[in-house]
Structure formats: C-alpha cells, structure tokens
Amino acid sequence: MTALQSDRPPEQADHWQQRVDLALAFRWAARLNLHEAVANHFSVAVGDSKTEFLINPNQAHFSRIKASDLLLLDATDPDTLDRASAPDPTAWGLHSAIHRHCPQARVALHVHPIYSTVLSTLEDPRLPPIDQNCAMFFNRYAIDPEYGGLALDREAERCCQHLADPSKWVLIMSQHGILVIGQTVAEAFNRLFYFERAAETYIKALWTGQQLRVMSDDVATVTAQAIEDYPEQAERHFAELRAILDQEASDYAT
User: How many domains does the chain have?
Assistant: First the structure.
C-alpha cells in the first residue's frame, strides 16, 4: 500500500485503484464532451460481495470529480436514498439494478453523448456496419425500444433484462442515451469512446442522403471478433489517457 493509500479511510484504500480509474474516466468523458451538465453516471463494482459499487456523487460535474469523491454503495441497501450523501435517484435506480442483476457488468457507464443519443431517437436505432468502428459493435449491442420516463424502478429493471446476454456491450436506450458495460473501467471506457465515434460516422453518413455501403454479415462478424481479440487495445488507450491527465490535471487521483 502506498503512503497516499494509507492516509485514506479503509473503505477508500481498499478500492483505491478502482477509484482512480473511475475518476480518470469521468475527467476524460468531460474532455471529450460525452457528459451532460451534472447528470449521467458511472459505476464500478468492488469487493467480494458482488453488490458493492462506487459511483459519482449527486450533481457533481464530471470535470471536477476526484477519486476520493466517489460514493461506496451497496445495491441491496434499501436505505441508500435516505442518507444525506445519497446519490442521484436515477443513478441509484439504474446502477443498483445493474449491480444486482448483471454480474458481467463490473463497470457501467451511462451517458447522453450527442450522436449516440441521436441514434437512440431514430425509428430504427440499429447501428449498421458501414465502417470498421461500426463493425466493432456488430451483434454486440442491444436496443431498449421503450421509454417510460426516468431510469427508476421498472425502467431500470427492463434495461437489465436487455443486458442478460453476456455478448452485449452497449444498450441503446431509445429516446434517452446509452449504457456501456465492461469488466474493467478501461474496457468500458474504450467501448464508450468507439461507440460514440461509430454513431457519429453513421449519423453523418445519413446526412449525405446517399445510399450507404454496408458490410456483409460475414465481414462484420470477422471484423468485430478481430477487434475484440486485439491485444491490450483498451488498456493501452486508457494508459495514454492516464499519462496525459497525470501531466495536466493530476488532482483526479486524490
């Protein structure tokens, strides 16, 4: 344990690297304009209980979140919203459900980035494999075609049902935004970055009004698997983001 960790309360020191990783994701989401005001939320499961997770504090701007700011919650605790330090109710509703029902989602990133959100508003919100980035997600996203209001109770439970298939990385939440999951913060953030880039390519291609060239299912399948198998792509991407922030705004890790 480092000197920095030893100065932390036990509940922080035990999960310090995950705190730092999630804080890094918040800061980069803000830099890349993937966030929305003081809304949206990221979480990461910690410990052996399988229901404990870290999440951003209520109404905190992503660009200011530090590792020590993150809330440690238990998805099975019915008194969470009664506490003075309670999270945003929609953050609790969505992420507590995920960490109760979706063990493959150690990390869950929910945002409303502009192109992914535009995609979610289309009558047909599918992402066809028109380029390599779009092909990365071939057969790896799910669509929730309903929108019944804020992500509370039944809305959150329904989202979890769409992620029951462990092959799905992204949930397109119709008329709302996206939810991206992964085993690590690096993996989930890399998927978030590329999904938004893919959505941007698709939406801008639609703007041209020209007919799109779509890969065959066979080519898209091979491409998606090759990208999934590419060694350490997410980890190296995240390491570079960490190096930049360590130079420019290292307070994220405090």
Answer: 1
